[in-house]
Structure formats: structure tokens, C-alpha cells
Design goal:
With 787 residues, the protein is mostly helical. It is built from 30 helices and six strands. The strands form two sheets. A four-stranded antiparallel beta sheet has the order 3-4-5-6. The protein has a two-stranded antiparallel ribbon with strand order 1-2. Strand 1 and strand 2 form a beta hairpin. Helix 2 packs parallel to helix 9 and helix 12 packs across helix 13. The chain is globular. One of its GO terms (cellular component) is endomembrane system.
Length: 787
Amino acid sequence: MVKFSKELEAQLIPEWKDTFVNYCLLKKQIKKIKNSRKPKPASHYPIAHHSDFGRSLFDPVRNLARTLSDKLFSTSEKPEILRVRRRKNTENGDDVEEIYQTELVQLFSEEDEVKVFFERLDEELNKVNLFHKSKETEFLGRGELLKKQLEILAELKQILSDRKKRNQSGSNSHRSYSSSARNSDFSAGSLGSPGELSETQSETSRTDEIIEALERNGVSFINSATRSKTKGGKPKMSLRVDIPDAVAGADGGGPRSIATATSALWEELVNNPRSGGGDFINRKKIQCAEKIIRSAYVELYKGLGLLKTYSSLNMVAFTKIMKKFDKVSGQHASSTYLKAVKRSQFISSDKVVRLMDEVESIFTKHFANNDRKKAMKFLKPHHHKDSHMVTFFVGLFTGCFISLFSIYIILAHLSGIFTSGAQVSYMETVYPVFSVFALLSLHMFMYGCNLFMWKNTRINYTFIFEFAPNTALRYRDAFLMGTTFMTAVVAAMVIHLILRAAGFSASQVDTIPGILLLIFICVLICPFDTFYRPTRFCFIRILRNIVCSPFYKVLMVDFFMADQLTSQIPLLRHIESTGCYFMAQSFKTHEYNTCKNGRIYRELAYLISFSPYFWRAMQCIRRWWDESNNDHLVNMGKYVSAMVAAGVRITYARENNNFWLIVVLMSSVVATLYQLYWDFVKDWGLLNPKSKNPWLRDNLILKNKNFYYLSIALNLVLRVAWIETVVRFRVSPVQSHLLDFLLASLEVIRRGHWNFYRVENEHLNNVGHFRAVKTVPLPFRDMDSDG
């Protein structure tokens, strides 16, 4: 049977962990009460040994009747053990808080320990009530704001529909008016065309129509009558929307919050009507706003569900802890205290349940065409359970990979690939292609390890990366993808060596890596719903966002993936070699120097080495532009320094002289120190001299502190692997390729190791701010009245 403490730890909301009942602390206090109990004095009367003599068959009946009469007709009440008082606390200004305080009526033999227990129990109850009330107020305010947004959206959709009908009827009347005008005695030039005469009036009337429709919903416009216009009479200045106090105040803003349309929605609605006709209210923008509001309702429903779970788990925790107290103390205090708990705010309030029902009805009506089953698929997405078949295939492919890799090592040794100088062409042409897949598979395996660790340590990575719960990749799936991929790669390498040894044409055999690459690309872009299509398309979409980083808003998953690319520069260089190898048809001529000595190829090496750092620097600029946080500019300097160091190393590899050696040392040392500082202090949140954990941070997920110290040392050692490019070990060309592959693999391992602590730090930041649901920016959002 699983202990409740472990069950509670497994079910609680990670971001709200500190606000739950501290069950372990209260259980320790009960253990102190148990240890401090005084032994009961022995009875002064000897125990009578009853014999069977004199007993009657009716004795059990008499005892039962006596017990029932005592319960039914006894007028004596049980003595009161404790009294729970509720008082109001007004120390926090206008907010009135209900504080629970327990008074002991009956004396206990271990009175001091019992008093401490109930003091801590009251503190936990007040803490739970306070947090529940704050979150309930927040969600209720968000619900009211969403209803106002939905009403505005409904009005705009109605205006769009009505105007479309009027345009259709107006076009028919315009054709009839034109035919009559041609038969009149007045010239068209003297009076002007009807479209020219009414263009300004129609634009103004459509704008006034929108204003009147929104004002019917309680939205007032500031200076709407005196706004400036262009020479053509069209609106020029943007309009500001004043949300009523009841709505604005519910969301935590000031008494007078100002709302404005985000993106280009309000511009399309009011300020910038398309010239030459067209939709004044853009249907695409309306659909975009509807999608945003729908997502906001989904997040609101998720938050309400978490708050409901929060209440039920805490109620169970209070019940369990009071039963333990009754068992240890030998008293029946649980009934009295649990009555007070049930009357408290987090249990007695039904606002969360009523709002959940209201959200379900609203979502079903407006976003699911009154189909409740369809609505609940959005509000309560189905979570796929882990399949044992996935675990079976992971083990199967792992065994196949180990067997095939052993066969490959034996065949490579027998054919002398890694020892004979005559096999240099294999290492220069075919081996880089296989290295691409090997590094990619290793990175996928490290990501699977990250998912496994994040799950076991209760880090909410799906919320951090904003993954859909029903399609998010699990660690078993990542291991399956990695082992399947690597098994296919090693199998292709074995087949390649066997065919070479069998005497097949080298031009035919060397097409195997190209075929494998083509299969991989086809699987990646396959449109069919197979082999983790949501994950594949999400990966492609993230790559698009990275390459076009200045033009897309940067999310956590975007810059996290861009950081992975900075550790895969050797893989990108191998892709360059692979592309040149097949485009130049080197697999037919086996002239590997065709690409290696080409000027364009050599110049592209700089571009490829710079690209990941450049993309990451552009993301920092975009985040600085969006958030106005100067830390992003400082972070950009880290990637610029890494870009300079990478370019200098490439130049030093081609021009081996003392000048470039000094430049390499200076640029690499500066970049490495920059990166180490940012890794430890910013990304991991460590090296805090004032922390209660020496040179770490106050909150740690891993219980053993030594893991953090070892991780700091490991990251430090792997960060200085660039020293090999300066030392230049004297090895053969074949061994040089193997050494480069080893260093590239170590960098991938370092990145996987870095990933865990980076997401751990982000999770702890969410815990510190109690962020368990995403805040969706609405199409009409609050902003200060001064702005």
C-alpha cells in the first residue's frame, strides 16, 4: 500500500507545491506527540478472571440492548476537546482575511506538543485558504474579462454579417441607379458618381456603427468624436477602449484600465479600411481573435480544474492528518476540526465549480456548435497512456543496435578501415554521412534521458515548452525513435562494408548513405499521421521560427532548440560535406578533394559555423524588442563572442601561425568565460554566494547537493574542449576524424546535461510565481491609462 505522503507528492501541482498542506511536517509533529506521551498508570484493581460459570445464553442480547439504549436515550454529551475560532484579519488594508485559531478545552498529557501541532495546523489551513482565495479571485476576474471579449467579438461578427448582406443588396441598387443615370439629361461630371459622393460618408458611418455596437456592451471610446481624419475623411488616430470598472478591476488592474487591440486587429477594424472597397472588418482577423479567445477559455478551464484538484487534495490531507492525531492521542478531535475545515473558504466556496460549468456551456455554444463531446475534447484533452509495446521495441532495437555495432567493429577491423592509409577516402566521404545520423541519434537519446529525469523529478516540461498534453513526446517515445534510427544507421553501415568486401562497384555501394538520407527526409516531411507526425511537424515549425527568428515571436521552445543547434555545428559541417559529396557526384569519382579544396565550400564553412550563433543572437534581439529587458542584449554578446571564436578557429586551422594562435587563445578564452558565467549564473541559477546551499541556489530539485557540484565541474571541463584545436595532437588522418567525432559527441552529451538544469531553473521560476497555466494575451487587452 502506497503511503499517502508519496501519493500526495505524486498528485500535487508542482508549481503550487509550497502552498499545499505540509503533510510531512505535521506528521513529524504527531510523531513527537507520540514519543512524549506519558505511560498510563496501572489499575489498582486486579483483573478479574471470569469463568464460564454463571453465564447465560442471553448475555450477548442484554449487552447489545444496553449499548443501543445508551446511544439512543443517553442525555449526556461528549466533552468538548477543542474549539476552532474564526476571526477576521484586517492588517492587509482593505482585504479581509479569515484566520482560524484553535483553542484546547481539554488538557492533554503532552499539552505543549499538542499546542504546537494545532498552531502549525492552523497555519497550514490559513495558508491554503489564502492561496485558494487569491487564485479564485484571479480566475473569476479572468472569466468576466473573457465574457466581455466574447460579447465584443459576437458584435463584430454580427456587423460583418449584416454589412455583407447590405453590400449584396447595395450592388443591385447601384446597377439600377447607373442604368437610370445614363438616360438622364444631367452629365455625370457635374454631379459625380454615387461612389465618389458617398465614400467618405460610408467609411464614417461604418466606423460609427462599430462604435455604437461596442458601446452597447458597456465599452466607451475616449475622444471618439474628435479624432483626426485624413484628407479623404478616413480615421487617422487610433481609438482607445475604456473597459468598465467591474471588468477591469476583476483582473487585477486599476479602477480604470484601458484596452486596445493587439497586433493589427484594431487597425483593420477601425483605422485602416482597405482602399477601393473590400471588407472593413477583416474576416481573417475576426477568426484569429476567436481562436485566441478559445485558447484563453481552454487555459481558464485548465486552471479551474487545477484549483479544484488543489482543494480536494488538501481536504484529504487534513482528514488523514487528523485521523493520525486521534489515533495517537486517543481522543476524538478530528470531527470538531474537520467541521471547521469544511466551513473554510477552499471547501465551502462553490464559485470554481459554477464557473467551470459556465465555461463548459459557453465553450459548447460558441466554439463547438453546441456539441458537448467536441467541446470536452478541447477542455479535457485525452492523455495517452504509456504502452508496454513501446518499452518492448525499445529493448528490441537496443539489442539489435548493440549486435550490429559489434559486427561493424569486427568488419571494420578486418577490412582495415581505421588503420590502413588506403582507406582515407572512406573516412573523407562516406563516414561524414554516417556521422550526421550518429550525432543526431545521440542527441535524441540525450533528450530521452532529459524527459525521463524531468518526469521523475516532477518538472512540468510540457507546460514550460507549451506542448499539447495529448501529443507531447514521452521519454519512451524518444528512446524508441533514437534506437530505431541508430539501428537503421548501423545496419546501413554494416551492409555498406559487406558489399564493399564482396567486390561490388564502389560507385553503387557509396549511394547507400544517400539513400538513407533520402529516407530520413521523406519520413520527416511525411504528411500521413504516422511515426509521431505532431512531433515531426512541430520540429519543422520550430526550425522555421529559428531561421526566421527576427520575424517570429520567440518562445521558450524556440530558443531552447536554437541552443541545441549551437552544439551541433560539427553535424552541420558534415551536412555540408554530404551535400557537396552527392551534388558533385563524388561517389562516382571518389575524388574527395573536389569539395575540400573548393573556394565556395571553404567559404560556406564560415557561414555554417556562424549560423546557429547568429540565429540565437537574432532571437535575443527580438526578445529584447518585445520585453525591453537589457539582459537579452547581454546574452546576445555571448553568442557574438562565440561566433568570433568559431571563425578564428577555422582560420587558424588553415593558416597555422603565431598571430592566429594568439587570436584563437584570446577569443576562445573570452567566449568560454562568457559562456560559463551565463551557464552557471543565468541559465542554471547557481553560484549564489548568499544561498543557504553554498554556491548553489536556495531551491534544489535533486536532494543530493553533490550532483550540482559535479555538474559544474563537468560542464567546465567540456566547455574547454576547444583546447584540442590549439594543441593539435599528432595523429593520422583517420584518427583525426575519430577524434573530431568524439569531441562532437562530448559536446552533445554536455548539451543534454545542460538541458536538465536549464529546465529545472525555469520550473523553479514558475514555482516561485505560482505559474501553472498559461496566460493568453487577448485581442482586447488591459493597459495602463497613462499608456
